[in-house]
Give the backbone structure.
Amino acid sequence: MRRRALQQVAHVLSEQLARRATLGIDNGVIPLSQIEVADAVGLSVVHSNRIFQYLRELGVLSKKRQVVEVVNKKRPQELAVFDGRYLNAGEPLSRGDVRWLMSKISCPSVAGAFWITSDAVALLNQFLV
């Protein structure tokens, strides 16, 4: 999905805040420069600067220009329609776990492809919750 520049920047800020909160860092400071945020979302530095100025006018960011500091942490989430559930996906499965899971859920077909049974869907849902 393509987002507007404001939404893109707000999404990066929201994601960084969420990631830092999981580490116990909840001060609103994001250790990225405006240039790094511009690079992350594919904006020119000039366009990114306009977005940052607008976010300061909205009261989302502090007026300090040396550091990116979010003072209203809910507002970027609202602007980006941010859903951070993907950040809590858990630990990745090992190869052994994947082999075991595939042995439980797949049925080989004649052509060598695999079909997933309805029992497999229930088993997968246990891992996805």
